[in-house]
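Lecture notes, structural biology module. Today: joint structure prediction for complexes of two components.
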Amino acid sequence: QSVLTQPPSASGTPGHRVTISCSGTSSNIESNVVNWYQQLPGTAPKLIIWGNNRRPSGVPDRFSGSKSGTSASLAISGLQSEDEADYYCVVWDDSLPAWVFGGGTKLTVL
Amino acid sequence: QITLKESGPTLVKPTQTLTLTCTFSGFSLTTNTMGVGWIRQPPGKALEWLAVIYWDDDKRYSPSLMNRLTITKDTSKNQVVLRMTNMGPLDTATYFCAHTGLYDSTFDHWGQGTLVTVSS
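The predicted structure, tokenised, for the full assembly:
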């Protein structure tokens, strides 16, 4: 059971927008910045959002992040077939203390 | 260009100690804010953070595994080593090492990972 709760699956059609939620607590998401990773099948995770809503260089602006209270969200607009992947949120938890990952969300592009 | 690569055994027996090496390039672990962490992923499951070591030799461990883990660095070789004792079947996973320090303290560059299977 992950400390951060993500929906196990999400789906959308090409060109549309999809959001993935990440729910935590006051000791993790509310207190610290949230980061998001994309993991394509058989590959290592790739950082796509850091600091709640910042994109590393090279990540398309179709990807955006937000945070409010104890929850965070990843939004992907203009959905493309190559966005089909697993997505993970991660944040430092002050009470453990440790880096905690969400359980991951498998995104399917229909 | 930052690159990292994990190496170590692909198969270990139950109760044995696992030693994994992360060899990196493109940065130095003597530079302020730099660090290297280890994260694992059992087949078909989520990511799990294990440990991280920083440029100043500060070390942090997963609370649930800290009595089994040791992380060390060799700055002359550009390597970070993770040792995990008393391996069991539930430790079967792909083990990743990753760099931290470019974007706050998050893990910004990852190695390709190495699959470790625990079986007799």
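Point to remember: The first strand of chain A starts at residue 9 and ends at 12.
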